[in-house]
Amino acid sequence: MMKRTKLMLTIAGGAIGLALANPAAAMFQRDPAYEQARANGQVGERMDGFLGVVGNQPQAIVDLVSDINIRRRANYTERARSQNATIDAYALTQGCLLIARTQPGEKYQAPDGSWKTRTSAPPERDSRCPPM
Amino acid sequence: MIHAKMKGLGLVCGLCLLGGCVNVNAPSDKIVIELNINIQQEVIYRLAADVEDNIDANPDIF
Fold this sequence. Notes:
Chain A is of the alpha+beta class.
């Protein structure tokens, strides 16, 4: 009886532990303003793994982009170090995958540097990008 | 004997001053130094799995 209770407690403890281990960041989704700017095509995914301002946009959009890019840079710096890679290589890989994940209607930067609107077709990406 | 050697040395030095013993001409072609700053495809392939995890773990910035 005692043994069983102990086992149950261990299982319950494990479940709580797992729930707590889940990083808080994963619970936050995109800021609604950021989500809207993406859908509107005011911002786009650059080849280099950073967010870009598409054309002339209000200051609020420019600020939103630079805020996200500061956080992305911090993230890339940390992840690149743990992977023994350069920040540029890590960021470029991010660009490959982030462009691959864009939704139809969103903007992305093509290898020639121009902004393209994502359709249902695969996006134009750097030749070094892994297959989608 | 020593004197003769000194004389010889003096002559060599004189030549150095006159004509320049070592003549280095800069090549007319541009010198291209290839730094290994190219990001290789194999590196991108290696990082792809970690990048996938990263995007999933940080939906607020991606």
